[in-house]
Amino acid sequence: MSHPTYHGFEAVIGLEVHAQLSTNSKLFSSSPNAFGNSPNRNINPVCTAQPGALPVLNKKAVEYAVKAGLATNCEIRLRSIFARKNYFYPDLPKGYQISQFEHPICEKGWLDIEFEHEPEKKEQKRVGITRIHMEEDAGKSQHMSGYSLVDLNRAGTPLIEIVSEPDFRSSTEAVAYLKKLRAILQYLDVCDGNMQEGNFRCDANVSVRKIGAEKFGTRAELKNLNSFRFLEKAIEYEIQRQINVINSGGKVVQETRLYDSAKNITASMRSKEEAHDYRYFPDPDLPPLVIEKNYVEAIKKDLPELPDEKATRFVSAFGIPEYDAKVITSTKALASFYEGAVDHSANEPKLVSNWLMTEVLRKLKEDEKEIEDCPFTADKLGQLIQLIKSGEISSKIAKTVFEEMWLSGDSPKSIVEKKGLIQVSDPGAIEEAIRKVMQASPKQLADFRSGKDKLFGYFVGQVMKETQGKANPAMVNSLVMAFLKGEKS
């Protein structure tokens, strides 16, 4: 397997992904787990660390953590332990975070990823997952001019941290892994995966070493990367920065760095702590988490269809190309949109795939939107396909209808009726248009009949123009040829 090299160096990258679990309440209290509320509304004595307030573990969060572990091929520990991770942040009221250290709930997993270092050259790789552990989130500080404000709504929010092995050798591989991991968590309904809201974010540990060296270089941790593009850009910048440091005779310092997207640079935030700096010890307020083997088996049996399985089914059941299936199943929302459109398309899954892959995804990319922001529903795309297959509109007219659907969100049927776009399939009307075109094109008619067959396209185009693009294309082709050959007059 190839991977990019950088002037005699190679990169070694590992990812730590924080995924906020979509439970109704927080990890150790009954406070709401909700985004967007007014500051300091989702709080109670537990998440604000009032004296005497004790944590109680959220059972649903445990179920979600086990689901994530099973879907990423992890071993599930039947006995795991919560620990106190001691450090001071203004938005961490207790002065410590409840996490898992030596005994996480999931470990020794893997994911297979697919990526391209070169266009049209697909590669695959198995990435190891060291562990998945449960922990609570801290609050959020907002720094103003001369003072800071603290919002504790997020304090105590349930997280899983998914720690990979240092198996990535490029930002391309890292992004492919992060996209797949996000899709899996969304398919499981354990995490919304909304990177803008911060409920799916990533830290990247990046180091470089001379090609052929076995020992890893000194790593820098890039904190809180909340988009695929930022992850890619931050890693690429950091790789080159470290190479420049080494080539200039300096030494890379182990530290935590932040990515500035406006300047496309990473900047030092603080020296990187080691595990002993956090003084981990088992939390005395929480007993060991013990789960039964049959509980794990029950969750395993209830796992939904995941992206790879769904893509395989789409290829076999719908007859679409593997590439299309991979793209369509890359997010749960996109796969659901496709299936919804197929259900209303009069059994035309391939045609739906074509329109989704070209027109819909093109418009979403232009508008920098996701499928959730599509201005019309899946059933309306299916209805558009029905109109094409029934012959009510041509493919050319369908593109006009699609553009109007994108602007208004109206149903294709109502747009066709309102704008008078119904396809002309009356042979008499099409023959009349052909006669007009032939009478206006005597030279082209003579040239065609003297052997210039390419002029057939000219006549078809002129007839379509005469009918304002509404004529049935198949019928036009057949009738134009009949007229040109003298079979009709």
Please characterize this protein's 3D structure.
This protein has 489 residues and is α+β, with helices and mostly antiparallel strands. Helices cover 39% and strands 21% of the residues. It has helices at 59-71, 171-188, 228-247, 293-301, 307-318, 322-328, 332-343, 349-367, 378-390, 395-408, 412-419, 427-440, 442-449, 455-466, 473-484, and strands at 9-20, 75-76, 79-80, 82-86, 96-100, 106-118, 121-136, 140-143, 148-151, 158-164, 200-210, 220-225, 255-260, 265-271, 281-282, 289-290. The strands form four sheets. A nine-stranded mixed β-sheet has the order 2-6-7-10-1-11-12-13-14. A hairpin with a 4-residue loop joins β8 and β9 (148-151). The termini are far apart. The relative contact order is 0.09.
What is the residue-averaged pLDDT? 91
The end-to-end distance, rounded to whole angstroms, is: 66 Å
Q: Biggest β-sheet: count, sense, barrel?
A: 9 strands, mixed
Major sheet: order of its strands? 2-6-7-10-1-11-12-13-14
Tally of strands: 16
Shape: elongated
Query: Count of helical segments?
Result: 15
**Rg calc:** 30 Å
Task: Identify low-pLDDT runs.
Answer: none
Helix content: 25-40%
Instruction: Report the portion of residues in β strands.
Output: 15-25%
User: Could you say which structural class the secondary elements and strand pairing correspond to?
Assistant: alpha+beta
